[in-house]
Amino acid sequence: MSLSLQKVDANNANDLKTFNDHLVNFSYADGYNPTQRDASIFAGFSSAPDAKYPNIARWYKHIGSFNENERKGWSGAATASTAKAASPAGDEDFDLFGEDSEDDAEKERITQERLKAYAEKKSKKPGPIAKSNVIYDVKPWDDTIDIKEIEQHVRSIETDGLVWGTSKVLPIAYGVNKLQICCVIEDEKVSTDWLEEQITSNEDLIQSVD
Fold it and tell me: Which SMART domains match (predicted)?
């Protein structure tokens, strides 16, 4: 979409505000590609624009990154003054920028397609992985069972989505100890019921698990 102003006076606050507002949604004076209009407006600045016009400051710095020959090579709409001089005398209905209407429509269509494709791609991205921190109390049958053997058995259980953590030995009663061990599981990959079955599968060592 082209800037509504036919000409931007670098010393006119109203022109600068209008141009700054235009650059909120568009990269250049005539939409999404640099044209001779950008080169013309740029040439009208004797110095960098005031910082209170941040969008113009960004645009000015970007346009300034091209050398003069590159700017001369830009196509697109002519400046307002040039177009007016070239128009037939008395032709009040002459559309200065009508020739770009189809280009603007095509650019808008492409922009919308890209936005749609981006939204679809973003919606397909996997969400955060749900994880749970689980602490198990594993109890032996009696005080004759070595808790280290129980821990070896528990840690031997391996599967995708399961990570064993720290452990410690805690007293129960009458000289009997239990193993307390923690783990982190991915909820979609590992169920606590399955894990408890794997732990208690060694019936010679383990009486129960909580």
Answer: EF-1_beta_acid, EF1_GNE
